[in-house]
Design a protein that fits this description.
The chain is α+β, with helices and mostly antiparallel strands. About 35% of the residues lie in helices and about 20% in strands. The chain has a 7-stranded mixed sheet with strand order 20-12-13-5-6-4-21. A 6-stranded mixed sheet has the order 14-11-19-9-10-17. A two-stranded antiparallel ribbon has the order 1-18.
Length: about 475
């Protein structure tokens, strides 16, 4: 939200910058495998947190411990499994994972009423999907990319043993497959955290009655109470899924960084508020809305359409300007504030480095990869071309995924930064998984057929190989 207090500045009153953001996002998964029933015992992997907060029993986001207890760590280690096989622990730029093999292994575990093996739940340690190989001869589709073994970190996340980056999860991939048609609709797959119109209007009224000298820690608490809970909106996917939690975690983390509630863990990435303070300009009285969406180059494909390559960083930050009307509704201006645009461009340029330090962003890129692969499989009819049946993966009734406490609200948070010309209050943002726009752009790359031949020369009895 943005409220222009430039008239006060013209009167010579020192005006402050008030920032309200959602103090939320990143989630502790409570209990082993989820908070309630569907799929919990089968998947069986409680993982501590995603990005640093948890969802309580009232569906409100709150901070999670940065370090789990020794007992919880031992429990997680036991559920994740102690994989000592050298080939699984090996760090490799390309591990191949058979989609048919994954499906067969999950089907076998379900038939025998056993928990899902860790190597299946964590997709053999994949950390990105870079290639998709279609193998009609084997009635299979192979997913390939960098991979390694995994461990449980201090916060309870399951991460690579050398990179510390989150590994991919089968439960997230199932959600991507099952929501592929939703992703192509107008609303698509998305999340946003925004104040209610009533909260925004109340904030506008309260702030209009305040003078610069009124701002204090007590005033900040009053503003937070006046703003009330902010609403989390999720479209196109199960709101109680881990997939949904990661989207909100990344959205929250972006808000925290852009508004200066957290310092970026990398150099050369000041917050939007730092930029605004340096410029000390009335242009800071805008209400920038930051969001993230897919960021890929055109998909590379072989001439026969049996080999595909995902290229690009996977995620980019976007921004648009806006204002808050008297009724509390946010109205887009159709313009872009140069300072906000600079922050979004910096985040996009530094996303790889940022994702290495912030698990929420790396998790988000994993989801983007999965969503693009799901859209690719659907658009190009790759299951039909391969002669592959993964009906249990695409049917939630056959294999339910775990359900967690669905994030619904977050408290408003406020801080002040002194400027000379304006006041800003902001709390807009989101994530848009625009996977179908990615698969619409392709180009033929001649040497990809050779890449496929080499990748499929080492079939293994297990469902993955290096």
């Amino acid at each position: 939200m943005a409220f222009d207090f430039s008239k006060r500045a013209l009167l010579g009153i020192a005006v402050l910058l008030c920032v309200c953001v959602a103090s939320s996002s990143a989630f502790a998964i409570q209990g082993v495998g989820g908070n309630n029933n569907n799929g919990s015992g089968f998947f069986g992997f409680g993982t501590g947190s995603v990005g640093g907060v948890k969802v309580d029993s009232n569906n409100v986001l709150e901070s999670a411990p940065t370090k789990i207890s020794k007992e919880d760590r031992q429990r997680l280690l036991a559920s994740v499994g102690d994989e000592n096989r050298t080939d699984l622990q090996t760090t490799t730029p390309m591990r191949k994972v058979s989609l048919r093999g994954l499906h067969d292994a999950a089907e076998k575990a379900l038939r025998e009423n056993k928990p899902l093996p860790a190597e299946v739940a964590f997709m053999a340690g994949l950390q990105r999907i870079e290639f998709v190989f279609v193998s009609p001869d084997n009635k299979d589709i192979i997913l390939a990319g960098p991979a390694e073994g995994w461990k449980v970190d201090d916060a309870g996340n399951v991460v690579g043993i050398t990179t510390g980056c989150p590994v991919m999860r089968l439960e997230d991939f199932l959600v991507a497959l099952r929501t592929v048609d939703n992703a192509r609709q107008d609303l698509g797959i998305s999340c946003s955290i925004n104040p209610t119109p009533e909260g925004a209007a109340a904030l506008s009224k309260a702030l209009s009655q305040m003078k610069a000298e009124d701002f204090s820690p007590d005033a900040a608490r009053h503003i937070e109470e006046t703003g009330g809970p902010q609403v989390i909106t999720l479209t196109g996917l199960p709101t109680g899924s881990r997939f949904a939690q990661v989207l909100v975690a990344a959205d929250y983390k972006m808000k925290r960084l852009s508004m200066g509630f957290e310092n970026a863990p990398i150099d050369g990435m000041p917050s939007y508020l730092e930029i605004a303070k340096r410029k000390d300009s009335a242009r800071a009285s805008t209400s920038p809305r930051f969001w993230m969406e897919c960021n890929y180059l055109p998909l590379a494909k072989s001439e026969d359409g049996l080999t595909w390559q995902l290229r690009g960083t996977g995620v980019k930050a976007m921004v648009e300007d806006g204002r808050i009307a008297n009724d509390g509704q946010r109205v887009a201006t159709g313009k872009v504030n140069a300072m906000a645009e600079k922050w979004a461009e910096t985040m996009t340029e530094k996303f790889d480095a940022l994702a290495q330090k912030e698990p929420a962003f790396r998790e988000l890129r994993n989801l983007m990869d999965m969503a693009v692969v799901a859209a690719l499989i659907s658009k190009e009819s790759l299951l039909e071309r391969a002669g592959l049946d993964i009906s249990m993966f695409v049917d939630a009734n056959k294999l339910p995924t775990p359900e967690y406490n669905a994030p619904k609200t977050v408290p408003t948070q406020c801080s002040f930064v002194r400027l000379t010309s304006s006041m800003l209050v902001t709390a807009s943002g989101g994530v848009q998984v625009d996977s179908w726009s990615v698969v619409e752009r392709t180009e033929i790359v001649n040497d990809l057929a050779t890449t496929r031949s080499a990748a499929l020369q080492s079939p293994a009895k297990q469902f993955w190989w290096n």
